[in-house]
Amino acid sequence: MIILLCSFSLGSSVAQTNDRDYIRLGNRSFRAEQYDEAETSYLKALSKKPSYEVFYNLGNTYLLQGKDSIGLANLMKADSIGSSNQLKRAKTYHNLGNVWYAQGSSLLKSNQDATPAFQKAAEYYKSSLRCNPDDDETRYNLAKALFQLKKSQQQNNGGGGQNNEKNEDKQQQEKKEEKKPQQEQPQDQQKQEQKQENQMSKQAVEQLLNSAQQDEKRVQRKLNKQKGSRKSLEKDW
Q1: What is the mean pLDDT of the chain?
Q2: I need a surface site. Which of 122, 132, 134, 209 has the fewest CB within 10 A?
Q3: Residue 115, pLDDT above cutoff 70
């Protein structure tokens, strides 16, 4: 999600180039997936005038280059500056949630405690929904983050995540030993177990999603009472 600017003419000389010119050039490179060039243009814009838009666009550019840490830092700077536009803030929180969700997934794969990362992801998704309760993508991401958070908490309950995994491995090995005489069925049985696990995972996500939808409907009703109807995103810079 990149914040784009309304078109305008560029200055004829380098001396006349301002922060908006560089943002426009950066956006052009970003759309062409030339992220190195986009980064250069955004950094030039930043040197002219730090702003919410520059930090936000620069953060997204770093993320797409796989530079999560510096991308996160720039999105945090954008958030610290803030914006009066609720939809812009919602996008910032959504992207921050995505960063923490990715970090949590990486930690989970390496058998490390991913609970704090998924907690932050869920918090940012909730903040995004408070700004824009109509965003189904964010609501779905929140459901996934809550599901992974619960999974991580179970694995690391009492700090015994690795021990629990070892115990699970032993139990699985014991089950395999018990099933050794029936050598014609393991593949079919394994496929059936995988289908059941996938169904359980989907059901869990759907339950969390339904719960999140009910919570955010209540938030939406409160926002509508307080602020009335929401305006569409305007490219006002």
Answers
A1: 76
A2: 134
A3: yes
What is the C-alpha to C-alpha distance for residues 142 and 209, in angstroms, rounded to an integer? 8
Given a contact cutoff of 8 angstroms between Cβ atoms, the answer to whether 152 and 104 are in contact is: yes
Residue with more model confidence, 129 or 224: 129
Q: Output b/e per residue, 205-233; b: 16+ Cβ within 10 A.
A: beebbeebbeebeeebeebeeeeeeeeee
Could you give the CA distance from residue 69 to residue 81 in angstroms, rounded to a whole number? 19
Each residue's pLDDT tens digit, 137-189: 999 999 999 999 999 998 887 544 444 455 455 555 544 544 444 343 344 55
pLDDT in tens, 35-50: 999 999 999 999 999 9
3 state SS for 25-80: HHHHHHHCCCHHHHHHHHHHHHHHCCCHHHHHHHHHHHHHCCCHHHHHHHHHHHHH
Question: And the tokens for 164?
Answer: 């629990």
**Orientation of helix 52-64 relative to helix 68-81, angle to 10°:** 160
